[in-house]
Task: structure prediction
Amino acid sequence: MKIVKFGLVVLVTLGLIIVLDRPLAIGEKQLPPLGRFLNPFSGFWQNAESIKQKDQQLDLEGLSAPVRVVYDERHVPHIFAESNADLFRVQGYVTAQHRLWQMDVTTRMVSGRLSEVMGERLLKRDQLQRRRGLPYAAENTLASWKNHPEEMQLLEAFTDGVNQYINSLSPGESPLEFKLLNYEPEPWSVYKSALLIKSMALTLCSRENDIESTNTRQLLGPEVFDALYPEYNPKQTPIVPSGTAWEFDTLSTEKADPILIGAIPHQPYEKVPAHVGSNNWAVAGSKTKSGNPILCNDPHLKLSLPSIWFEVQLHTPEMNIYGVSLPGFPGIVIGFNGHISWGMTNVGHDVLDWYQIKWADQSRIQYYLDGEAIPVSTRIETYKLADGQTVIDTVRYTKWGPIVYEDENHPQRDMAMRWLAHQGGSNELRMALDLAQARDFNAFEAAISQFHTPAQNMIFASQNGEIGIKVQGTLPLRAPQEGRFILDGSNSTAGWSGTIPLDQNPKIYNPERGYVGSANQHSTAPDYPYYYLGNFEDYRGRTLDMMLDSLTDIGVEEMMQLQANNFSMKAHDALPAMLQYMDNGSSDANAQPYLDSLRSWDFNYHGHLISPVWFETWFDHFYTLVWDEIESAETKSGVTLLYPESWRTIELLETEPDHPFFDRKGTPETETAGDLVRLAFTRTFEELQENPNAKWQDHKGTHIPHLSRLPALGRGKLPVGGHGSALNAIKRDFGPSWRMVVEMGQPLRAYGVYPGGQSGNPGSPHYDDMIDKWVKGEYFSLHYMQNADEKLDNISTTTQTFE
Amino acid sequence: MKKDILAVGLFILLGFLLQSFFSLWSIAILGLIFGWLINRSNGHTFLLGGLAVFLLWGGYAFWLDSANAGILSARIGKLLGNLPPLGLVLLTAFLGGIVGSFSALSGSMARKLFL
Result:
């Protein structure tokens, strides 16, 4: 009996230890092994870092001289090294120390390796990334980096720094998320840095509407299509103003008419969200109080914790740069060097086209090209799932690129994806190093010429008073309309035939108006000699130009206010045009006060206001009512169509209120714009009557999720205003990911803030410590140190010494 | 009583050292040896073994949490069903305590059975 009891107790003990060491599944929820996770010696408690930071001495192999890292009050590392190799080795170590899991998960996301650690439910997502050719693109990038041995050595030094940090970790010291998701860090590589660059390309330059446009043109006919989907908004103020003389010999793009392909049934598939955007501008000394140029930049990206950016200062005897880096790539992306400053916004040009493939055989091993059967090349993708299973998948590659979809019923099953970003060729690190040395616009232009994709509007200001902006990147040389619709993959001359010579890319330098800027709008007016298409923003750029035209005697405060400016040109254009039909008031007396407040609203999307909610809801209802024909055509035909842009909808409302599209198909009456505006208002009141006084900030519900999407690690509803069409483009979970203002005086003064914190550790006081200031539109002074011993006024610092 | 306090204190000290290098298993083995050596009734041993690891885990977690000003425990508490930080410390202590209790009981019963 005793022995049985003893056996039972031993079993319970063993059982406890085993159960506590296993991951738990409670319903859908996956929990880490509780014993491991709660064990204070190795579990999450070890990530509860002490809020009192201490100086550290660390051993790092491969250094030629000691490196000092001074952390300021926001935990920004200021790295002081004797050589580039030492500098980047330590940048790798320090970045990993703060952002290792983010680096791991971001590269897993791009390379389709999430299912390895999170299981089969992520396999589909992984496959899409691999079939889009992202690892292929990163391999091409790596191959082209290898042609530059000096930069390659520095990339390897960075990688080695990351790996020395990873190797220094005991299991208890792994970042929290590895413990939560129950897997171990793996070594970094230069290839992963390339993956990271490709993840930016995916975010920034993979948007297109080829299928929707093809279908819509086929169903509506070319005339209606051209009328509803004009490519250029006449109200637009392009980056390079209209009337600029283009002094170069234009390459020919003449071609036979493109072969148009019929409508394609199309289930919705995962598309890159349309939310990314950015602002940058630089004002000349002629417009500023101090006489120094001021440069501003705020890239709008997905809001996340850890933040997309890691702030850093990099100092050697030859360079001294400060700015934000991408965790996983050496150097900085946006920042300044003491003589010049630079920033970026995205160029919306379409660089991704789909080609219909004509197969030459049933097994789809050969396809026709100019009448000849050409074999596809294949690429085997292997997935090692978390449960030990291996999945093997073959991707066919044509002359154009990969056949992304293989599923029997997928409408794009027989289409190849051609994407400019599949190619390598950029030398990002060389650009960063040359920018660090640049003193004037010529040197700036030479430095950025080494960057090809994703194309960026690169802005510049210097201490010697210059300003400028260039559309930098490789852009396809297209015949008119080419790439707007699905292309014929059996014709080798289909699609872009080359690229626009880099020195013919649009740019402006020291214009008389005293400023340059961009907000993702068209690069040029239609007078630019090359055709291009893409996704361009229609409102922010106009606000920017309007404001900068009117401002004089500018100080940094005015520039900060402009970055936080909530004025929307969309509301400014649409609301008066809508209100003109409401002269008889609201049909429901209870809605009248809200209509009255809309009349006095100044088009600012301030968080505490009610009117933005009413306007947005009203405009959405109106938009839906106007384009009911397209919705019903979609339902009838079973294919996905393109909806007209909001600016075109507003333009029709303003100029052609009797346009046949304002008539609702399902009713006997012939409606005009006014009828739809009034009906939309009635529907707005119906929708909002339960909570008519909701503030814009509550309605919008801006939040910053953790990359794992665990709500406890994110930051919930934030009391912020802003709108996608306002310079302060804070949406639900997209927005200014870094706000920077640099005054190019002697010495230069710089200010910045981002919606997060320097540490990726949710157990760090620096995990989200900048969010509150970001919400308020406030900034931190950036400490641009001149040497490691410099004392910062009233600021306590800690130091890491690497030897 | 004195011996008990001494034994529990020794358990905590050795546990701290062992756990700094080894995983959960080490605490179970230590518990087993403790249960064998302390030579008390099964119930008594069960309580003392549990108390030792309860104090070790709970105390260490509490200390780390204080140094961190509760930043992380607030977030993890939310993640594990809205536990307050102190609740998370107690849950940690309790989990460790159970392992301590059962391993000590195993040791105690083994001694009575085999010696």
About this structure: Chain B has a mean pLDDT of 93. The first helix of chain B runs from residue 2 to 21. Helices of chain B lie at 2-21, 24-38, 42-67, 71-79, 85-114. Chain B touches chain A through 36 residues (CB under 8 Å).
